[in-house]
Amino acid sequence: MLAARETTDVLILDWPGDCEEAALYSLGRALLLAGTQILELDSRELAIGLKRRSTGESSILLYDATPGGAGHCLELMNLGRDWLQKAGQILRGTPDHHAACRRACLDCLLDFSGQFDAHRLDRKKALQLLEGGLNPV
Ligand SMILES: [Zn+2]
Q1: What angle do CA 89, 97, 48 make, to 5 degrees?
Q2: Could you give the angle at which helices 21-38 and 81-92 cross, rounded to 10 degrees?
Q3: What is the pLDDT of residue 68?
Q4: CA 72 – ligand 1 centroid, Å
Q5: pLDDT number for residue 106
Q6: How many independent structural domains does the chain possess?
Q7: Cα–chain center distance at 34
Q8: Is 4 among the domain residues?
Q9: By residue range, what is the domain housing residue 33?
Q10: Which residues surround ligand 1, an ion (CB under 5 A)?
Q11: How far is the CA of 107 from the centre of ligand 1 (A)?
């Protein structure tokens, strides 16, 4: 077994309720893509994962992929709602895209760094999760 330890910047987004993994993971990918577009970064400069909390619920873990951290997570956190709305735009896309794309495609969530986890993507469930958070009933 090989192991390494690196210090980096991390942003943990707790999402209340019992969320489906595909929805949460896809929302994480959308937040990553939105963040890298806003900050004009390569999408490989940020990474995501899901983290199980002690309550059994999961959180989105977003971190700088650069060893030592580059401060991108803090910049995104400070953007707040603009960042979340950009993620929503990526998930929804154009009306044609929204009607045609079932889980993920190259126009929304699929990119080079996310291709190996394509089976975990479901943009419609992520969009429901995000819109529910942005527009609580
Ligand atoms: Zn798509």
Answers
A1: 50
A2: 110
A3: 78
A4: 26
A5: 93
A6: 1
A7: 8
A8: no
A9: 10-130
A10: 101, 105, 107-108
A11: 5
Tokens of 121: 């993507």
Q: What is the pTM of this model?
A: 0.90
d(CA 106, CA 71) in angstroms, rounded, equals 28
Asked if residue 15 is part of any domain, the answer here is yes
Please name the helix (run of DSSP H) or strand (run of DSSP E) that holds residue 64, with its range, or none. Answer: strand 58-64
At 133, list the tokens.
């958070």
Token readout for 82 is 């603009």
State pLDDT tens for residues 54-90. 888 889 999 998 877 788 999 999 999 999 999 999 9
The whole-angstrom separation of Cα 2 and Cα 18 is 34
Q: Is 45 inside any structural domain?
A: yes
Does 25 fall in a domain? yes
For residue 100, what are the CA distances in angstroms to 28, 55, 94?
22, 37, 10
Report the mean per-residue pLDDT for the chain: 90
